[in-house]
Amino acid sequence: MSLVGLEELRAAQRRIAGVAVRTPLLPCPWAAEGTRALWLKPESLQPTGAFKIRGAYNRLAALSEADRARGVVAQSSGNHAQAVAYAARLLGVKAVIVMPDTSPAVKVENTRAFGAEVVLVSPDDRDTLPAELVAEHGYVWVPPYDDPYVIAGQGTVGLEIAEDAPDELDTVLVPVSGGGLISGTAAALKLACPGVKVIGVEPELAADAQQSLRTGRHAVWPVADTYRTIADGLRTPSVGLLPFEHLQAYVDDIVTVSEAEIRDTVALLARRGRLVAEPSGAVAPAAYFHRADQLAGRVFAAVVSGGNLEPALLAELLGT
Fold first, then answer.
1. β-bridge mates for residue 256, sequence order
2. Strand pairing category for 140-141 and 72-75
3. Is 52 a catalytic residue?
4. Which of 52, 107, 190, 197 is catalytic?
5. Is 197 within 8 Å of 252 (Cβ atoms)?
6. Is 305 part of the annotated catalytic residue set?
7. Spatial separation of the C-alpha atoms in residues 89 and 117, rounded to whole Å
C-alpha cells in the first residue's frame, strides 16, 4: 500500500473547499505555562460537528457518476456517519449507515436528519455488516479510515496547521481511533514542515494504536475493552492497515490519557476555551494539560476533533 503524498493532500484540499470549514488555529493564552504554549484546531466547528466531513466529502466527490448512482454504505459510531450522510445529501447520493446501538442518540438523530438510512447493530457487527450490504445491494463502501481518499481528506487538517502555525510550533497532538485523521495529518505535517513532532493521543482504555506503534505489530483489542472509554469516537479495536503504515512512517509516538483526564478537559475547554468538545475531541488537548512534561515540547497545537455530545453528558461533565 502506498502512502498519501502532498499531491493527494492538495487535491483533497481543493476538492473540499467550500464544503468543509477551514477552521482557525486558536491561541490559548489561558493555557500557557512558563515557556509552554497551546494552540487549538477546533474541528468541532465543522458543519457536521467533527473533522470527518473532510474525508467523507473527498471520498464521495471523487466517485464516478456510475458509482454515485449505486449509493454508498458506511459504518461509524457517529461522526463519520453524519459526515457521509451530509456529503451524500450535497451530492445527491443514497447513503446507508451502519451504527452500533451504543451510539449517542444525538449522533444517530443527526445522521437521520441529513437523510441517511441508519441501521443499528451490536458493536460486534458494526464492521462486518457493510460488506454484506455491498454484496446484497451493490453499494460503494466508504470506510471511516482505511481508504486513501479519506486519509487525504482528513490530512487537510495538517495542511492548514502547517500554513497557520507560528514558526515556534514544535509538537502537534492528534487523537487516534482508526487512524485516518492522524495518518493524513502526520503525512501533511512531516512533508510540509518536517521539524514538527506528531504525537497521537488515545484513551488508556483503548490504547491499541499505541501498542501497535511501539511494538511494530498491528494490535487488535477486544471490542469489550475499547468500549469502556467515555470517548465513544475512539473505541475502534484497531487502527486500519493503511493508517498503520502511515503511523510507522510519520508518527513520533502515541501517549494515553485517563478517563478522569478526558472528563476534566471537556469541562476545561468549555469553561476557559469556550469550546464544546465531545470526550473524543478532548483527548488531544488532555495530553497537553496532563502529559506535557513527558512530551518535551514547548509550542503545541492540539486537534479538537469533534463536539457532538449529548447535552446531558456535557452538563454532567461541567458539574451542573
1. 202
2. parallel
3. yes
4. 52
5. yes
6. yes
7. 12
- How would residue 1 be classed by pLDDT, with cut points 50, 70 and 90? low
User: Does the structure show a pLDDT above 70 at 231?
Assistant: yes
- Whether 3 and 251 have beta carbons less than 8 Å apart is answered as no
Catalytic residue (one of 76, 183, 238, 305): 305
CB 61 within 8 A of CB 87: yes
Task: Say how far apart CA 278 and CA 47 lie, in whole Å.
Answer: 15
Indicate the pLDDT class of residue 296, thresholds 50, 70 and 90: confident
Specify the pTM. Answer: 0.95
State how far the Cα of 291 lies from the Cα of 257, in Å rounded to an integer: 8
Q: Determine what percent of the chain falls in helix, strand and coil, rounding each to the nearest 5.
A: 50, 15, 30
Taking CA atoms, 282 is separated from 27, 66, 184, 268, 269, in Å, by 16, 39, 19, 9, 8
CB-based contact 71:94 (threshold 8 Å): yes
